[in-house]
Design brief:
Layout: E1 19-23, H1 28-34, E2 41-45, H2 46-51, E3 64-67, H3 81-94, E4 99-102, E5 105-109, E6 123-130, H4 136-153, E7 157-160, H5 175-185, E8 189-193, H6 194-203, H7 208-212, E9 220-225, E10 227-231, E11 234-238, H8 245-257, E12 262-265, H9 275-290
Parallel strand pairs: 1-2, 1-12, 2-3, 3-4, 4-7, 7-8, 8-9, 9-12
Antiparallel strand pairs: 5-6, 10-11
């Protein structure tokens, strides 16, 4: 068991105007060397650092925020001790002010009839963030996971909303109600992916701004900004294209009425994202925050 540390530490993203950072991809490395003044921090996936500790030049990052997809917060398969320890190690090595995770699950138990009766591996990695059914049973699982992470790491735990393309079977509440109930029952903070919120609202026939106001805005510390693609009338997450204006509309509302500290440009699916487009997106975000 790790020693619990103070919730906020020196070097954390400061309150005041929201800082603007970027999610790490290969094109970010030369950007950090050429224009170290552009971004206030770099958000880095824990899995990338775990696989290759030298893949990211941390020493060139103005500050690091650690993002994870390994704790499977909404699933029934807890992390193994090696994963717990590795996450804790990178929390220390990066001095991240918080740990962000997905309000979803990535691993699950094999079930009878799936061919696992004679398998030596009782669980499998789904490979994609899956939203759990939004009901009381899954809410209990997430609350317990947040408590375990908070006790283990001693820094704020931020949960990121998944994009919904349909309502998960077994749900008894909307995603917005589910997140609100979660915040009532746990100390979790929110990494609100604004693009995911817009996708979810539009796919389910909701107005994104109205949906936003159903969330506890005071729990939002960080947001993600990325693009959206349309395929046969369904909105899809897309980190290779610029954000639509509705995403900036939501960001403007957040800048006025939340405890927002950090805005992350999440254009990390293309290793050659055009720098002029990135600079234009950075300007749009700063303009939205200033407004």
């Amino acid at each position: 068991m790790r020693t619990k540390r103070p919730e906020r530490r020196e070097g954390a993203v400061c309150r005041g105007r929201p800082r603007v950072g970027i999610s790490y991809s290969d094109y970010v490395r030369p950007l950090l060397l050429d224009r170290p003044d552009l971004f206030d921090y770099v958000e880095i996936p824990f899995e990338m650092l775990r696989a290759n500790p030298h893949v990211v030049p941390i020493e060139n990052c103005p500050q690091v925020l650690l993002h994870s997809a390994s704790l499977s917060m909404a699933g029934d398969v807890p992390p193994d001790e090696a994963t717990w320890s590795a996450v804790g190690d990178w929390i220390d090595r990066t001095s991240t002010p918080w740990l962000s995770e997905h309000l979803a699950f990535f691993t699950a138990h094999r079930t009878p009839g799936d061919g696992s009766a004679h398998s030596a591996v009782p669980i499998y990695d789904i490979g994609y963030a899956i939203s759990a059914p939004m009901n009381e049973e899954s809410l209990d699982v997430v609350v317990a996971a947040v408590d375990a992470c908070s006790q283990r790491f001693g820094i704020p735990i931020l949960l990121e909303n998944s994009p919904l393309y349909f309502t998960p079977p077994g749900s008894t509440m909307t995603q917005f109600e589910y997140i609100r109930r979660l915040c009532e029952r746990s100390p979790a903070r929110l990494l609100l992916d604004v693009t995911h919120l817009v996708i979810t609202a539009q796919n389910l026939g909701r107005d994104p701004i109205e949906a936003l106001h159903e969330l506890p805005l005071d729990r939002i510390l960080e947001v993600h900004v990325a693009g959206i693609s349309d395929f046969e009338g369904t909105q899809w997450d897309d980190h290779t294209v610029r954000a639509p204006e509705v995403v900036m509309d939501v960001l403007r509302v957040l800048a006025r009425g939340s405890g927002l500290e950090a805005v992350t440009l999440e254009y990390n699916w293309s290793v050659t994202f055009p720098r002029p487009l990135l600079l234009a997106e950075l300007a749009r975000v700063k303009e939205a925050l200033a407004a």
